[in-house]
Amino acid sequence: MEINLIEEKINNIKEFSGVISIKKYGKVIYEKAYGFADIANERKNNINTRFGIASGAKLLTAISICKLVDEGLLKFDSVVKDYVELENISDNVTIKNLLTHTSGIPDYFDEEKLNDFSELWNERPMYLMREPKDFIPLMKVGKMMFNVGEKFHYNNGAFVILALIVEKVSGMKFVDFVKKNVFEILDMNQSGYFSIDMLPKNCAYGYEENKDGTLKTNIYSIPVVGGGDGGVFVTLEDISKLWNGLLNYRLLSKDTTDELLAMQVYVNYDVYYGYGIWIIKHDDGVYKYYITGSDPGVSFESAVYPKKGIEVTILGNREFSTYEIIKELEIYL
């Protein structure tokens, strides 16, 4: 691995703000922080800074559902309407359809139709969005987009419903369920679904760009507290703990873990989707598993390359494409 070339490539990237980590067989071979966590107070990002990861948190929702399956409280072919009352979704939509974005249900934020997530909060204030149930009024708008199981269509609302199902079956708030069944088990002590108007220490503010090039925080552009479809805060170390815990069966049974990681649905080209996780397949098998997220002021990418023993995580607090960075780095991995 050409570490010098990798470092040169990263250092040439302008305006990236965040942290980057590259590990090989668990050993750190590159790790560095860039930019500011708080621009106004010139507080720099550091290796232990906590960042939001937007949709990267869908993996936590999938793990939560899988945990309930392991406990015999839920089945992947369970019908959604047995747990959540939404008249505008088909009777045969299953948990698996939600996990694999094949449900066809109406989405409160369809990324193929809307480019700016902040547009959602023009009429419904983001500070009201604190729990999965707060999204129900948005989920009741619209009709089925296509027949159940017909195709893959990325759906944020599906993972909001999955969080509601976790709450219904477990009797716990979704964020508390994740804390107990993932964070505490893996000692992910720095991670949490923090309220962005009450962030704990060493968190990075997310920054988005105004039309005149100045920067503002994303506090009015995303839900005040994350949930089933995204919004958790993590550190580099905690993401690494999550990968290790998942892949070494510390969270779920082997059978359920293998199902989560299986190529459940074809997306396009060499891309597949499991349960809350993206998969790239090459001729000789899985090239990488990855999770990714993007919100106003948030850009995140984390990947594991099983045949190479490599783990790469990029956490960003500006709208700079971490996807482009990781694609550049893959040339040298």
UniProtKB/TrEMBL annotation:
Subcellular location, record wording: Membrane
Protein name: CubicO group peptidase, beta-lactamase class C family
Stored SUPFAM superfamilies: beta-lactamase/transpeptidase-like (SSF56601)
Keyword annotations of the record: Membrane
One CC-aspect GO term: membrane
Taxonomy, superkingdom: Bacteria
Residue span, Beta-lactamase-related domain: 20-321
